[in-house]
Amino acid sequence: MRLPVWVPTVRVRVTTAALVLAWLAVWRMPFALGMSQESEVFAGSVLSIILAAALFLLFRHAFSCADRRLKLIVYPIGFLFSGFTLVGKQLEASASLADFSIVTVLEGSFSLLLFTVVYGAGLLLIFQGMQKLAQPKPPGEKESLVSRIFGNFFVVFALMVLCWLPAWLSFWPGIFNLDSGTQLYTYLDWVHSTHHPLLHTLFLGYCIMLGVELTAEGSAAVGLAIYSVVQLTMMAGIVAYACSWLRRKAAPVVARIMVIVLFALFPSYAIWSFSALKDVLFGGLVLLFVIQLIDLWQDQETLLRSPLRIVRFIVIAVLMMLMRNNGIYALVLFMPFAVVLAKGARIRITALLAGCAALYLLANGALIWATEATQPCKIEMLSIPLQQIARTLRDHPDELALDTENVLDTLYDINITEIYAPQVADPLKWAADYDEVDDNLPQLISLWARMGIRNPISYLEAFLIQNLPYYLPGSEMVYKIDSSVIQIDLYYIEEHCFLPTMRTFYENYSNTLSAFGLPGVRLLSDTAFFVWLCIAGVGYALYLRQRQWLPGFVFLLGIWCTCLVGPVAITRYMLGFFYAIPVLFAAMLAHAKNVVPKQLINQTQPANDVTQNVIR
After folding, report:
1. DSSP alpha helices (H): ranges in 489-615?
2. C-beta atoms surrounding 152 within 10 Å
3. What angle do CA 427, 429, 435 make, to 5 degrees?
4. Global pTM?
5. Per-residue pLDDT band at 527 (split at 50, 70, 90)
6. N or C terminus: fewer CB in 10 A for the chain?
7. Are 228 and 174 in contact (CB under 8 A)?
8. Cis peptide leading into residue 173 (ω within 30°)
9. Which residues pair with 275 in a beta bridge?
């Protein structure tokens, strides 16, 4: 039956909708980015025309897609990204949420839905592209020499060491600052606190004092160099193991080479490899633990029946948790999801994860006993509540009347609104009387709850502004990468730069998070961008119906949640994302039919017809 001439065809409707939405998106782009609507970047510029054309093609492709399952996954994620962008840019531009009125609610809702379509359509195109990259290889195709080389543990390990050593020589004997100095003091005085991971404190202190004892002049610089080399070697080994694991998972060769190039040449990985901060080894162990989670979900029966693999899983999990408290918190947050995801082996997997947590508590308890460590003040866990109270009093001074017990006067000898810094809670932490915090904790929590009920907007603003770098890509951080060496009283750490030009390059990067003006470098150093990749990874795993990837992403999001209640949003707290996300995405590009049998990896000679499904 022919339609009347005035009834548009599906193709015409799709094209019209794509065209209208493209121009609307360009029109609302300044609002989404927190810019003036008359901004010269968009108003009447060629850029707006190019952007509108690109969005039109994107929308037309997305609207023509017949994959309903794909749409049901990408558009909810697009809604989340749209919310992050609009709220984050509003806070970045005005440091407060917009006043609520009918006009602002309607305007915000319209932009939220509009950019949901933008992000959803973009994700749809990306997921389709990843699907094409993961096509199965033709039967009979053998593994290439390039694949074997870049999947070999020793080759990748040597490459990482060779690429990272020049950076270390530029900063000899290493990077030693922030918490590293505090940890060394506690080691020297043997006055330990569980605020810092005891295992890392002992490891750092032992290495530095080893250098002091081995040299006639008692050089702490040699000790720091020993620590730097040991950690650099360990991180190179972790990366090499991950790349050999990608070969076993039959990740495409191009994807594996890109991962290797990223780890070997991107400046941040080289700088972190010899930084004495506790976060580095924790980030590497997070990568190993994520790999173990994927293996557990992908090969449950084999792993759960192998005592050796169970022991390896437990050792990695316990070491990861011992290196930073976020590890145990993230595992606790992950366990309810594990019960849901562990279809067919819920009891065994839950028992394994609970056993890891129990052994961590036992090992950490032994370290506390051996070091006579004390429990720290609870001020760290009050970072967000203190920020919320201070912001509320700054915006609504009359709310001080709620402090009927004079808790704030007891904790502080100054007005906390004078030291309130929206993006970092450290000033409020450092100014408090730690002894009084513990003694007056119930009263402080009560004040925080009563004030929050009356001022939810101020509380929400305080939380969102401090965590901007954790959910808004491109947001400025208070601290970037500190490549300095702080001096301690007892032992002078002598610095020497063997490669001055290279040091200048790395220092410029650590100060700006950019290099050579290349596009994308800033994003590869951005915590929020990696959080977005993690959320997108959850969506892609759901689309593939491959649940083995979900535990890795969900555990990483658990770490993200623990960081959201911390004192400041910085890169080093999220290093696990920077190490694990590239490996996870490379692994997800492997097609199920391309899996390499593990026994073939250990053979020196290529097999015959057994390798017919091996990735090139």
Report:
1. 500-512, 527-544, 550-564, 575-588, 598-601
2. 17
3. 140
4. 0.92
5. very high
6. N
7. yes
8. yes
9. 175
